[in-house]
């Protein structure tokens, strides 16, 4: 069965790592058809906007997008492309796995956890932000709703249930922010009662940061609000070697966008040394989402094997002597032989 997906190559190193990723997907014979669409700096130059309406229409039509890193120009008048996409498609669940791989700068071995972050409300809403007193005072409103809290916590518990996970930790600051964070915690406690087979833990965010550094193996699935999730998911990426190994999924009821969460790295654009692992792992998440879990597992196992046994094919940032192309080639050879 053929599945069409929207593909956003991205800016900077985006086209290079996307080409590598699509080579691997083709080698897996996933039956995917790619519809390339414009977004980012290229779209701004070509269409006068960072996200043309035809690109939004394509994502809505296909329901699935694979996205390379995009650059939002610095300065007033440009809002984050990622935030725009999340709001437009109501992609309420940001799902960030953190998995240890060999031959990396990982601080720990055998980490396998997932951060589930509420993606559409909380501290990142532009509504309620203003400058007053002639620019001497900035005001920002944190808005958390019962609906938003219920659906993200339930998503986390369903993810745990469907993937054999044993524990969900709700991270909050309800001891101080008693309204918005308190509401989130109250809802998490209510939802947890519906899943007695899954251990439920609640943890204040500052303690969670310390515990993640000291003993990350105690965590399985972490669910939290927008700002805390943004910070914690990058902390977790640091535990396993950095953003070069950090994929992300933005999932809603009608659309899902899978991405490398790192930046566009214009300083190494065109040098064929960019690490494609984050986008490859995002593609594995996409395959899981599409029900092709065996193929998603093959990508993850292939990356592990290449990092262990093909150091001459691994990109320099991970201590290898290879290139973006050679890493993709080694992974293609792995999936074709297994």
Report on this structure:
This protein has 338 residues and is α/β, with parallel strands linked by helices. The chain folds into two domains: 1-97 and 241-338, Isopropylmalate Dehydrogenase; 107-239, Isopropylmalate Dehydrogenase (3-Layer(aba) Sandwich), CATH 3.40.718. It has eleven helices and twelve strands. The protein has helices at 14-27, 41-47, 53-62, 81-88, 146-162, 180-192, 205-214, 226-239, 277-289, 293-309, 324-337; strands spanning 3-8, 32-36, 64-67, 93-99, 112-118, 130-132, 137-139, 167-172, 199-204, 221-224, 247-251, 256-260. The strands form two sheets. A ten-stranded mixed sheet has the order 2-1-3-12-11-4-5-10-8-9, with helices on both faces. Strands 6-7 form a two-stranded antiparallel sheet. Helix 7 runs parallel beside helix 8 (226-239). The chain starts with a strand and ends with a helix. The mean pLDDT is 94.
- Overall pLDDT: 94
Q: Kindly report how far apart the N and C termini lie.
A: 21 Å
Strands, total number: 12
Overall geometric form: globular
Family: Belongs to the isocitrate and isopropylmalate dehydrogenases family.
Organism: Vreelandella titanicae
EC number: 1.1.1.87
Protein name: Homoisocitrate dehydrogenase
């Amino acid at each position: 069965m053929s599945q069409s997906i929207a593909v956003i190559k991205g800016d900077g190193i985006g086209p290079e790592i996307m080409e590598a990723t699509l080579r691997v997907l083709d080698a897996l014979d996933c039956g995917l058809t790619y519809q390339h669409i414009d977004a980012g700096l290229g779209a701004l130059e070509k269409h006068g906007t960072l996200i043309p309406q035809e690109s939004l229409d394509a994502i809505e039509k296909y329901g699935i997008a694979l996205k390379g890193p995009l650059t939002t120009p610095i300065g007033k008048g440009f809002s984050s492309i990622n935030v725009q996409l999340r709001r437009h498609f109501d992609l309420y669940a940001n799902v960030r796995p953190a998995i240890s791989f060999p031959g990396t700068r990982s601080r720990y071995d055998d980490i396998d956890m997932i951060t589930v972050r509420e993606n559409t409300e909380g501290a990142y809403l532009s509504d309620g932000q203003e400058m007053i007193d002639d620019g001497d005072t900035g005001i920002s409103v944190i808005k958390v709703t019962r609906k938003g809290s219920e659906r993200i916590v339930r998503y986390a518990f369903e993810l745990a249930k469907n993937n054999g996970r044993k524990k969900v930790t709700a991270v909050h600051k309800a001891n101080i922010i008693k309204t918005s964070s308190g509401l989130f915690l109250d809802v998490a406690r209510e939802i947890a009662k519906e899943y007695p087979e899954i251990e439920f833990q609640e943890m204040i965010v500052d303690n969670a940061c310390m515990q993640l550094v000291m003993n990350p193996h105690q965590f399985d699935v972490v669910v939290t609000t927008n700002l805390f999730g943004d910070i914690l998911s990058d902390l977790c990426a640091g535990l396993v070697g950095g953003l070069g190994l950090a994929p992300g999924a933005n999932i809603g009821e009608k659309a899902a966008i899978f991405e490398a969460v790192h930046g566009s790295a214009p300083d190494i654009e065109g040098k064929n040394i960019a690490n494609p692992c984050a986008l490859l792992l995002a593609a594995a998440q996409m395959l899981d989402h599409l029900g092709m879990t065996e193929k998603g597992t093959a990508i993850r196992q292939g990356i592990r094997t290449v990092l262990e046994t093909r150091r001459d094919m691994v990109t320099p940032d991970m201590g290898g002597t290879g290139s973006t192309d050679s890493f993709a080639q080694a992974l293609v050879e792995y999936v074709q032989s297994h």
